[in-house]
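note to self: dont lose this again. the chain is below, predicted strucutre after it. 219 aa total, dont forget to put it in the shared folder this time
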Amino acid sequence: MQQYMQILKNTKLFSGVREEEIETMLICLGATLHQYKKGDYVFRTGEYIHNLTVLVEGSLHIQKDDYWGNRAILGHIAVGEMFGEAYLSPDSGPLPNDVVALKDSCVIFFDVDRILSVCTSACKFHSLTVKNLFFAVSEKNRRLVAKLGHISNRTTREKLLSYLSDEAKRSKSSSFFIPFNRQQLADFLSVDRSAMSNELCKMRDEGLMEFNKNHFTLL
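---
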């Protein structure tokens, strides 16, 4: 896991923790590295999660398929982000969604019991990691609220403008990349792909934006 040390150092979970301290904590927290091929399931609906996970290579989607095969993308997981923390409490129940690798990916699993319990060495950076975990969960909740704001809009255009506006603000630029292709964006916003593509073309023709694949420029 040494090759991923710089990635871990830049995660929210280990914010403020020095690299040599992270090396110690990987042992302290029972960290294990798992590799997945494109299309593999990291977690499946109905599983119980017992580990906090951090993506250190690749890309993942949180998605849900209904009985008829219709897919909704609930979230995108980029390198350095953790996932699964919402289902670690004893009464949280099984995972309601799938987590799937979009490309070959590597994930580090951490024993959540070791994170939440003070280790025998009582290292000061352990308590910092617990605080970081709390802040990271709070940020995830804010992102969920933001998504609810996007999909609560009535029309496809309003949903697109809400999402793209937030992405521009997040990247601090009118020109930015999004982590979705067209079908994935439609699934994320819970809209029909054809209707969404037509609306994007209309907004481009009206001079509201320019785009090429997953790169957008708001005008």
